Amino acid sequence: MDFIDPHIHMAARTTDDFLLMAKMGCVLVGEPAFWMGYDRSGVNSFYDYFRQLTEWEPKRAANHGIQHHCWMGINAKEVIAVLPEFLEKPNVLGIGEIGLHKNTPNEVTTLLELIELGMKTDEQLLFHTPHLEDKYKGTRMILDILRADSRVDHTRVCIDHCEEHTIRGVLEEGYWAGITLYPTTKATPVRAVDMVEMYGAERLLVNSSADWGPSDPLAVPAVMFEMRRRGHPESLIRQLVYDNPLRFFGQSRNFSFTPPS
After folding, report:
1. pLDDT tens for residues 203-255?
2. Dihedral sign computed on CA atoms, order 204, 113, 185, 46
3. What is the pLDDT at residue 21?
4. Is 176 in a helix, a strand, or coil?
5. Distance between CA 145 and CA 122 in Å, rounded?
6. Domain ranges across the chain
7. DSSP assigned state of 4
8. β-pairing, 157-159 with 67-72?
9. Residues with Cβ < 8 Å from 143, sequence gap 6 or more?
10. Average of pLDDT values for 178-202?
11. End-to-end CA distance of the chain, in Å?
């Protein structure tokens, strides 16, 4: 079965990872801009990174029959001035991943500016929620911020890295909920399938968020195998790993996808 990884950082992965993903059935990836593990020296460094996501990574993916889309963002004030140029690129889905990490006032100030840009340019939004002990508070803060802005279309927003204690609130408010399969700070395939069984597959996205840390670019197939092990129908698996990402991405003005023949 073909699958889509809607959140993976291929700029931090090798060509071998593209090859393995293609062999397992990956046909499309969504790559959000993110913190690459070190602080950048200035706006030109961000600019070059955004060029990599919009120019080079699509070519690397295409070499393995994988279509590549990305998100432009990062919670850094320095990037806001250059974002409009990249939001017009043909493989850009919207603004992301943005959000909170330590839930600080400075983070909130920058996040509000990024949301404002998204509303002015009619973008989809992809939100990062904090790790571990900061996750519940940060998720609630993001939901409160979005609830206060009547311009936000909840169906065009994904709140990512949801876990058992945050997913209900995200779904109840009408957002898409991302479940990240990351071995140390987020969910496992078993926990992800537990959440699918609790809440259903509607408006759920599962992703690997594979990056420069300990992570698995084949985490989405691991969820597929766990669902099959539990006896779930192929139609439900396909909805979760293929149909849902296409529905969410399909709301972007720049999105196009050609199914494999």
Report:
1. 999 999 999 889 999 999 999 999 999 999 999 999 999 999 999 999 999 99
2. positive
3. 98
4. strand
5. 17
6. 3-249
7. E
8. unpaired
9. 159, 169, 170, 173
10. 95
11. 13
Rounded CA separation 86/155 (Å): 23
Phi and psi torsions of 83, nearest 5°:
-60, -45
Architecture label for domain 3-249: Alpha-Beta Barrel (3.20)
Q: Which residue has the tokens 């197939």?
A: 221
Q: Which amino acid, one-letter code, is at 116? A: E
Please give the mean pLDDT across all residues of the chain: 95
Q: According to the model, what pLDDT value does residue 183 have?
A: 86
Helices and strands (H, E) in the chain, number of each type: 11, 8
Strand segments, DSSP code E, in 6-147 are 26-32, 67-72, 92-99, 124-128
Kindly report the pTM of this predicted structure: 0.96
Phi, psi of 127 (to 5 degrees): -110, 135
- pLDDT tens track for 130-166: 988 899 999 999 999 999 999 999 999 999 999 999 9
3-state helix, strand, coil in the chain (%, to 5): 45, 15, 35
